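TA notes. Do not distribute before section.
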Amino acid sequence: MRKLVISTSSFDVDNNSCLRNLVNSGMHIVGNSYKRKLTEDEIIGLLGEDTVGMIAGIEPLTERVFASAKGLRVVSRCGAGLDSVDLAAAKIRDISVFNTPEAPAQAVAELTMGLMLAALRRICQTDRLLRVNEWPRVQGQLLAAQIVGIIGLGHIGRRVARLCQAFDARVIAYDPYIDPTSHGVESVSLEKLITEANVISLHLPYGADTHHLLDAKTFARMKPGTIIINSARGGIVDETALDEALISGHLGMAALDVFEQEPYHGPLIGNDKAILTSHIGSLARESRKRMEIEAAENLLEGLINTGLIKSDVNNV
């Protein structure tokens, strides 16, 4: 029996018609029993040599993983980013790779706005103080009064831009591949954005060229009181330098949904100026359902294209 692996920490197989039809056609589905992000060794063990297709999470799909998974032909990412996938290694081994870039975009954009507003109005700090019998009168800031700098204007970044504009904020953006003006956003250099924005929101992929894009030197060039929002990828921000910049008072607040190492146990845990969430950007019920359906459809398409199953499997 041919095996399919679903490595995401959760996935609703029972209510996914594509997957049910694949099961009915003779496929065997194996899930992630750890219910968390898998390590390289764990994903190698889960795939084995008999897996032909997988629905992937954010685990590292490296050259070593692909070399070990000798039967693998299709990888369907349940999510937008592909930075965890060695695309060159997949291509060499004729493994098709898919993702779902549009499905989680609205959910991540809305979480970004929630983090931004929480940081500006000090919502989490006020909540914590209230719970220890204080009655804080914390003065926050208006989003409408800010210059919001967006780094990366892809599916998510341009949604965040529109939402910020709806709040009457001035939005500037830097993207080396997309012209922000084509989306009604003021285009600026990265340096201008870093030095002029009051709120900086990250929406770009992680790679060697974006590793610690925001580090101690970058933070030093920002306006005093700048707020950092990261719902993209953890490695883009030097978290130790961020913690130090918050403690010093140079940065005003930070809100992060992603971290260089997850689960996160770093110094920001104890920083009252940091709002932290556990990589929940896409975890809105409606978006998650769409992601899972699209990921399964992509998997099916890939298996059909490789000739591993017949094109009429949806009629099973």
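Switch to the second chain here.
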Amino acid sequence: MAKEYLVALFPRTRRVMINGQYMGITNTKLELESGPYEVTLGPPDNFTPEKHDIDLRDTASLKPRVVVFEVAS
């Protein structure tokens, strides 16, 4: 399978969960295999949206897929 790249953006450092497992931290590039993923953040649950469902394909190290989480008010 091809190597793909993902960055989960959030204003604070937070653990990133991919398919229910912690795989890295926010605002850093993660290297994954291509395919479908559910991306969310670790606690506390003060972010929106709750999750991103993505199909990770056609990325490059210099052009990762970016998902954005915001602080929930």
